[in-house]
Amino acid sequence: MKQLLSILLIAILSTSVVYGQKTGNFEKLIEETNRYLNVYDGLTPFGEYYSVKELGLTKKEIKEIVSYNNDCIPTKKDSIEAHDAIMFFQDLIIKNIGKIIEHKEFYKLNDNDLPALGIIKSKDNKLYNFKLYENSGGSYHSCFSIMFYRDNSTLINAEYSTEGDSESFFKRDGYVGIDTINTSDGTKYVLTGWVQGCNACFETSIELVQFKDGEWINDFSYSVESRSYNEVLLYDPKTKTISVEYETDDLTQSCTCEQKQEPEYDSYFDWNNRKSCECTFVFNGETFELAKQCWEIIHNKTTNEEE
């Protein structure tokens, strides 16, 4: 399924220069996309079948879903399996996202035009992230993410991230925030991310990136995997400071302020010997540099309190 969606996006988007489409009514495109999103929001992977006639489709779309359904070898001609219905609407939505960001009237898009989509953008209105919840039914809250960079009316660069895509520059699940920093070397973007990987697995991350000479460059990256639902990484755009606070667990078993952290899962982690960790990074005009790091043992405090 992910491969099919990847092929679809490659057909719509290009990592080279692309110019806005001159055809199609932008308002109708937004309206149609919201219709798809509203139906998609009501679908669940835990059911068995959906009646094709109850999905709010046009006659043309019904023919498309019937054809799509035939490819999936259905057991019922007038119904479609839940997972197939979800994938069908994912195709429709992602295809329309491609049309929207290529459209010559993209500048008309408001923040609340597509409320069911996660859309964030930079303050200079150049870097955007569209996110669609995958609705896979698992504890991993995965998303489809489309990052794109525009300059005036021109779509300069677009990238669709998928699971297992080693060539993807951006994170597969997208981001929750984009901040802008103006430097002597040009504009740089601070990307903050958060994703739930399982019922008690959370990753927070931050990156400093720049689009230069036709390609994306990563100047800084840091991430933490934790069992804590609380935010462990905060970025202050006023002071350009990154503050990290977390407690060690079986996912991240040591206190480290290195930029790239590798998963350290160990089922034999000693929960009685945990540490409280802190890291502070400050922007130095070019990138973020480590300004403070410290840690302390937690279990001693617990033991003293019990005594």
Question: What is the radius of gyration?
Answer: 22 Å
* Beta strand %: 35-45%
The overall pLDDT average reads 82
Indicate the overall shape.
flat
**Helical proportion?**
10-25%
What is the total tally of β strands?
A: 15
Q: Summarize the biggest pleated sheet.
A: 5 strands, antiparallel
Number of DSSP helical runs: 5
Structural class: alpha+beta
Span of the ends, CA to CA: 57 Å
Task: Give the key terms.
single chain, 307 residues, 5-stranded antiparallel β-sheet, 4-stranded antiparallel β-sheet, 22% helix, flat, disordered N terminus, disordered C terminus
Protein model, in words:
With 307 residues, this protein is α+β, with helices and mostly antiparallel strands. Helix content is 22%, strand content 36%. It has five helices and 15 strands. It has helices spanning 2-12, 26-41, 59-71, 82-102, 299-306, and strands at residues 18-19, 49-51, 79-81, 118-121, 127-133, 143-151, 154-161, 177-183, 186-198, 201-212, 215-226, 233-236, 241-247, 275-283, 288-297. A five-stranded antiparallel beta sheet has the order 1-7-6-5-4. α1 packs parallel to α4 and α2 (26-41) packs antiparallel against α4. It is flat.
Short description:
The chain is of the alpha+beta class and 307 residues long. It has helices at 2-12, 26-41, 59-71, 82-102, 299-306; strands spanning 18-19, 49-51, 79-81, 118-121, 127-133, 143-151, 154-161, 177-183, 186-198, 201-212, 215-226, 233-236, 241-247, 275-283, 288-297. The radius of gyration is 22 Å and the shape is flat.
